[in-house]
Amino acid sequence: MGTTQLESVQEPKYWHLKTVLIDALDSEFEVGEILPNERDLAARFGVARATLRQALEQLELEGRLQRRRGVGTTVAPPRMGVAVGPSANVWPGAGRDAWQTIGCAEAVAPAAVAAVLGTGADEAVHTIHRERVMQGQPVATELLYVPAASVPDLSPLLSPANHAPAVLRELHVLELEGEDRAVELGSARAEDAKHLDRLPGAPVLVVTTRYFAQGRVAAASVATYRADTCRLTFGDSGAVEVTHHQAESRQAS
Amino acid sequence: MGTTQLESVQEPKYWHLKTVLIDALDSEFEVGEILPNERDLAARFGVARATLRQALEQLELEGRLQRRRGVGTTVAPPRMGVAVGPSANVWPGAGRDAWQTIGCAEAVAPAAVAAVLGTGADEAVHTIHRERVMQGQPVATELLYVPAASVPDLSPLLSPANHAPAVLRELHVLELEGEDRAVELGSARAEDAKHLDRLPGAPVLVVTTRYFAQGRVAAASVATYRADTCRLTFGDSGAVEVTHHQAESRQAS
DNA sequence: AAGTGGTCTAGACCACATA
DNA sequence: ATGTGGTCTAGACCACTTT
Prior knowledge:
The structure is a homodimer of 253-residue chains. With 253 residues, the first copy, chain A, is of the alpha+beta class. Chain A has two domains: 13-75, Arc Repressor Mutant, subunit A; 80-234, 3-Layer(aba) Sandwich (Chorismate lyase). Chain A has helices at residues 13-28, 38-45, 49-61, 111-117, 160-173, 190-195, and strands spanning 65-68, 72-75, 80-85, 99-108, 124-134, 137-147, 178-187, 203-213, 216-226, 230-235. In chain A, a hairpin with a 3-residue loop joins strand 1 and strand 2 (72-75). In chain A, helix 1 packs across helix 3 and helix 2 (38-45) crosses helix 3. The interface between A and B is large, with 46 and 46 residues. Strand 7 (178-187) of chain A pairs antiparallel with strand 10 of chain B. Chains A, B: Pfam families: GntR, UTRA.
């Protein structure tokens, strides 16, 4: 039998398509360049549009493509390195930390938040909504929960505009004893998706942080990062220079 | 006009389906319980199977469902908290760190790895393949890269079985000066998928770690965690007790 | 052999951005 | 008005597990 055993373990079409597209992306396209539309691409590769889309979806998940409804599909730049776990423990809102407050409210903690805080389900918490922008585009939204018990000296009469800064200021009075983080995969809620300029359900990295002071959880935050454009960095050094899938990239005109 | 404005902003069917299914999951099903098959579910909700699948896919992404070909769809237990960033910096392979070596090789570093190591593209590296198991199931695979220059005193004559332990032993001689981590979303390579008991392309959390010694990167690892079952934890305290989307869960019989 | 989830097709229409 | 990606349908067949 002189025939080489080819395609004996047949891989799915979309999987093979993905590898073909990756090669084309690395060799024939520049970052930012726009691809042919899905109908044309599907015809070119001789597959149904749904199959082509399955390949594109994974490439977008891996941060190699960016698709925008009404516009088209473009080659994505390397993911941004976003520092999440600094070496020095600091309170949120202290010392220029790249977050910008966009809202504030005081309400009863939802059950899920109460579980993280370790408080009762009916305790009042200040909820500060913040946003993180890098290189001109939003990369994360965050809900920061501060139990009222953590900021007992907060002035009760505050205009909405002064509320968030006041809560943070009171929080900084406490001595921060430690932080705790968890990262998991999620899909963007409708509201988060809007802030992040994505469609609902887009893949996101959810970072849950607990801030410890006075021997208990003094505050907690749930931050939602765009999974397609962000690489979360932890540890001593800051962002790593080069990402993994291309050594150098040039901006298309 | 006395009519309440309902469904003016029509949400996609699969999105609405998701919320319906989440409610059903929380109220009518136990962890581990098997759901009706996709064709029945689609018929019950009056949608095409592809639409139903779009909802199930997102629920699996969020760790609420587990689907296995030939078996069925089950309600997933809460995600496991997997400690990734210990407070004390330690070399891999030191002091019972939950990883188990399953292979080893010495070869030239791929370009992507060389970039992380900061070495030349043609330098020899030891590649140790390890696996992490929690609660009886594999949760991660890892490729640990150790440049030959980091372990100069390694005995050149080693049986394959002794190779990996010897490399780690030599590595532990060095003083570990710091670690560096990055987390990003990826899709499982075919080989990784096999180890993790998932299909190729399954969503994974890729943790890239750099180990610093002697003022340079003495080793680096790329670990691939199942995104559906894992919640990566960092920081002082270990795994958090309760996860976010259910306060208590009982094991089905 | 039967039943499950996974892949694939060839259409259709919708929401959105842009010219 | 046109073109893009996003949603949806009603089938078909395949790969895999279990009976």
